[in-house]
Specification:
This protein is an all-alpha fold. It has 4 helices and no strands.
Length: 137
């Protein structure tokens, strides 16, 4: 078995590279064809297998949805006095916002571990530059 990191040949029985001690059977992140907002609900162990580029796109989707939830929550809270809004509707809006905030923090945490920072904005310029770097390798 050849090590993904150093390229050294290793025996098939070993779990670690004999040269650099990297795990030989660990799955490495691969680019995905399609990403959906619902994938942010995956557990940490699965999200950590996402490629950094995919995590950035997922972070962008989660931040957009979180902003939408925030605007909805605020509009419900600021409804005129004549309009009666039940507490379940308000609780639902708040719980959605909190859920997407927590999911956003998980993804940002993984990105901090990989990149050393979390991007303030995930815009087309950032994604295009990262995509160009990936295509050059």
């Amino acid at each position: 078995m050849i090590c993904f990191y150093c390229g050294q040949e290793n025996s098939h029985e070993s779990a670690l590279c004999t040269f650099c001690e990297a795990p030989l059977k660990a799955r490495r992140p691969q680019l995905r064809d399609h990403l959906f907002l619902e994938q942010c609900e995956l557990p940490f162990s699965e999200l950590s297998l996402f490629h950094t580029y995919d995590l950035l796109i997922l972070l962008r989707l989660v931040r957009e949805e979180r902003s939408t939830c925030y605007r909805l929550m605020r509009s419900v809270q600021k409804a005129p006095e004549g309009i009666v809004i039940d507490s379940d509707t308000l609780a639902f809006a708040e719980s959605d916002y909190r859920r997407y905030t927590a999911r956003m923090r998980v993804i940002e945490g993984i990105l901090i571990d990989r990149m050393g920072y979390k991007p303030k904005r995930v815009d087309d310029k950032l994604l295009a530059s990262l995509k160009a770097k990936l295509e050059n390798n």
